[in-house]
Amino acid sequence: MELLKNILYTFLFFCLTTGVFAQNVVHNLKDNPIDIKNFDKRNYSQSKDAIYFLADDNSQSTGRLIINLSTKEQDNITLSWQNTTANKVRTQWSARLQYRLSQTEEWQDVLDKGGKAVVFYSQYKRYRQNFSDIKLPSSCENQEFVQISWLIGTKGKKTPNPQILFRNILIKSEYDKFFGTPAEVKVFSKSGELAQQVENIIFNNVGYPYLFPEQKRIFIEGKNIRDSITFEITGKNSYHFSLSEYSLKSNRFLFVSYTPKSEGKHEAVLEINTSKLKGGVIRIPLKGSCSKHRDYDKNYIPVASEPNNTFSYHIPVFSNTDYQFSFQREEHSVSKIFVEYKWKRNNKVLSIMADTLKNNNYCVPLQSPKTADEIEIALSSEQEFLPMNAYFGYPKVKTMIQSGLWSDDNNWKDKNSPVMEDFVMIANGIQAIVDEDASCSMLFLGDSANVVIENGKIFYVASDIFYNQKSFFTVNQNLLPKRWNYISSPINQAHAAIFSMKNDSNDSWLMQYNTGIRSKHNDYWSEYITDPKFVLDPGKGYAIYTHEPLVVKYEGLLCASNVSVNLKSTPDDKWNMIGNPYTAPLSSKKLFEELDGKIQGNTIMLFDRENEVYNPIIIDPKEEIAIPSLESFFVEAYTHSTNILFKRSQQYIPLTGEKVLSNHNYLNLSVCKGKNYQYALLGMIDEAKFDFDEYDCHKLFGTNEDMPEIYFKDENDEYSVNVFPSYPASFDVDLYIGNPHAVELNLNNLAVLPENIVVFMEDKESGEFYNLCENASIKTSINSGVTQRYRIHIIKAMDNAEYKDIYIWTDGERCLIYSADNHLNKIRIKNSLGKVESERSLMEREVFQYTLPIGRYKIDLNISDNWINNCDLEVK
User: Fold this and answer.
1) Entry pTM
2) In sequence order, what DSSP letters do the residues of 833-869 get, joined into one string?
3) Cα dihedral sign, 37-39-45-46
4) Rounded to whole angstroms, how far apart are CA atoms 492 and 556?
5) Strands 508-511 and 542-546: what pairing?
6) Mind listing the pLDDT tens digit for each residue in 790-841?
7) Which secondary-structure segment (H or E) carries 196?
8) Looking at residues 578-598, what average pLDDT do you find?
9) Rounded to the nearest 5°, which phi and psi values hold at 649?
10) If DSSP codes are grouped into helix, strand and coil, which group holds residue 678?
11) Is the pLDDT of residue 52 over 60?
């Protein structure tokens, strides 16, 4: 522990001898202490006894032993000592620990953890008692002056004092780097611009037993945190809830899960605390509910026997679930029927919707909102009516009744193949072949039913899949020959044997990436996996090399609706190979909440198996990118090991048009060889740093020596994603290729650049500057190995509206100036004393550069024969 700073301690009539108390006998103690000062950053530790007893005349029955101290910049002050009675006395004496913050205040008791006064009582015989780490009240912390004392007295008549000894007095404290400023903790539903403070956490109403835990993500932001922020769930229902972590030392996300152990409504409290927390412990109510699963074909609308003007239904629902409501009316009815829906939670209305029946048949799909547990449906009309064949429940099931193509209407009971909103039943013994992209809301497989998904086809199931005896999936995947394929299994319990089943004469090799475990080849790849019973874990990535084209057949049950994967982080290696475990692409937008803050730069490195290089994809809530199914990718864990949870609900919803496969909200700097390319990304965030931080991602090199690769470079790091905080920003751009070749550099997504921003690529060998905003392409040839010849500059124009086409910036000790409209004729650079360091005329559209020592300068600009004087410039 950091020890008390500037302790002023004393006992009455004590003196300081080499930093400890000398032995003294004290008579007739009063409130008149002597201060002992300048005991800097050490414990006070008593080395000799202090003895209290009354004078021989027995004129006094009370007294105090007093210590004065300063606690500036100190907290967590504790006091330890030993009391001993040196002789036998029949009357009971006591030493009561008290404190005060000024000599004019009344003394107050120091209380123990149980809220009781700390008191030593003598016994009829010699007696000893130890007091350990008695914590002084927080009001004693960070004070110029504090007095602590022992009030010594007796309950009975004045009798000889038993000589109470004070031994081994020890005062400890911790240095408070925040000088007494209270800690603050805020809890948000998310980080960034749309952050909302969390007052309670209400979970969805779910089925029991639950298919996967309900989880809420909250962002913890702390200021003036001395040790760590701690979390605890309290209350009689606390065992229904859990946390991803129970203490944090930095601003991070915390995941709160609802894992009900029984049906019912469950409430608990999340308590958040830290040392010196302003306002005390933060308490956030947690509320969850669950009820027994319902049959998928159950109808919740009772049959109406008599016509009426109004009908009302109150129906329990699960949250975030697809339902269907339908009814018919008599053909001769002409009046409109009004329909009103009220979604509720604990009888509180969450949302209201209205509709009108304009013909005789009414059928609508409905989805319950988050946290809803009930729907109230009201039907009304000016004339009496009778709702016939009324139905509310899960969407009506479409049943496949004969084997064949999923897309063939003739194979379905109602001669109509399913759409995304439908519940689907594959009848017993039926084989459904998915030869085109297909989707449904929920899927039920009968006994021995089989769904075959052809290579490259999307099979999207929005929620859950239910199996009966011997039902299973077959998923086909084509692997490219003579190269590594990075795959992820869509099946539970897939075995390595599947990679050699198709053709015994074909050689194939399977490997996995072991984060932080070096192999004999000095990398982190495993040896070849030769055990045919080796199980491929869902959500993990694997590398498979095949000499010949190979069609892999995964057979079994599809991965669960929730797949948890552990991310590892070691001092030497933070890369983890994981993969999409589903038969449909994942949505980067839906992945954001799960990955945000867990991986470097919120970036995944996706392997382009055609070109055998890695390209970065930033998981950004503002754009949606499709992460391919059955493929693996690398992520770089952010500073610590953690878990990520893939969910079926994170799947990319099939839409018309082409899927987006790369970011468009970031500058894309690519290197091309013919039609093949590899790229790096540039972005700007105010909170980022110019050095490597959590917003950046390291470079991961591919395996193709004939393919050029591009990345940003500083003294310590190679970046695939480089996010900077402000303009100007300048970075080295390196290229790598195994074999020499002509290449082309391109800057893409220029539309993301704000107004008055220009991007230059500097050729450090030739001294040329290329304006990538005017001509976003540079053709060049590079030799084998690393080419360290280019530097990129992202520059903002002068703030002056009249001269917004003039750019002045520094790069190290260089001053650079550029004018976009040719009106800048001459420049003059002056030092802090006004002396002209340089003066010269500018050629047309030239980037002028001048090397200057570190310091502050003034620049004069001659624009259209008018001088602008004393523009500020600092070389850092």
Assistant:
1) 0.69
2) TS-EEEEEE--TT-EEEEE--SEEEEEEEEETTEEEE
3) negative
4) 7
5) antiparallel
6) 999 999 988 776 667 788 888 888 888 888 775 777 888 888 777 787 777 7
7) none
8) 91
9) -70, -10
10) strand
11) no
Nearest in space to 196 (alpha carbons), one of 187, 204, 205: 187
Could you list the beta-strand ranges (E) of 714-813: 718-724, 729-737, 741-748, 757-763, 769-771, 777-782, 785-796, 806-811
Helix (H) or strand (E) holding 415: none
HSE at residue 681, side-chain half, CA atoms within 13 A, is: 26
Q: Which amino acid belongs to residue 94?
A: S
> How far apart are alpha carbons 417 and 425 in whole angstroms?
11
Q: Is the pLDDT of residue 721 over 80?
A: yes
Structure tokens at 142: 């960070």
- Is residue 148 within 8 Å of 67, Cβ to Cβ? yes
Sequence-distant (6+) residues with CB within 8 A of 219 are: 187, 188, 189, 190, 191, 195, 251, 252, 253, 254
**Token pair listed for 72:** 């500036």
Rounded-to-integer distance, Cα 594 and Cα 92, Å = 65
Q: Which two tokens stand for residue 153?
A: 């007295």
Do 224 and 232 touch, CB atoms closer than 8 A? no
The neighbour count for residue 227, using CB atoms within 10 Å, is 13
pLDDT beyond 90 at 8: no
Q: Which residue has the higher pLDDT, 10 or 323?
A: 323
pLDDT tens, position by position, 669-680: 999 998 899 999
Q: Indicate the range of 138-142, 402-406, 554-558 predicted with least confidence.
A: 138-142
Take residue 439 and report the two structure tokens written for it. Answer: 């989707």
Strand runs (DSSP E) across 520-561, as ranges? 535-536, 542-546, 550-556
- What is the C-alpha to C-alpha distance for residues 97 and 132, in angstroms, rounded to an integer? 13
Q: Which of 694, 788, 783, 798 is nearest to 741 (CA)?
A: 783
- Tell which residue, 794, 785, 787, 717, has the closest CA to residue 761: 794
Which residue pairs from 573-576 have beta carbons closer than 8 angstroms and sit at least 24 positions apart in sequence? 573/515, 573/516, 573/524, 574/515, 574/600, 574/636, 574/637, 574/638, 575/513, 575/515, 575/524, 575/634, 575/635, 575/636, 575/637, 575/700, 576/513, 576/515, 576/634, 576/635, 576/636, 576/637
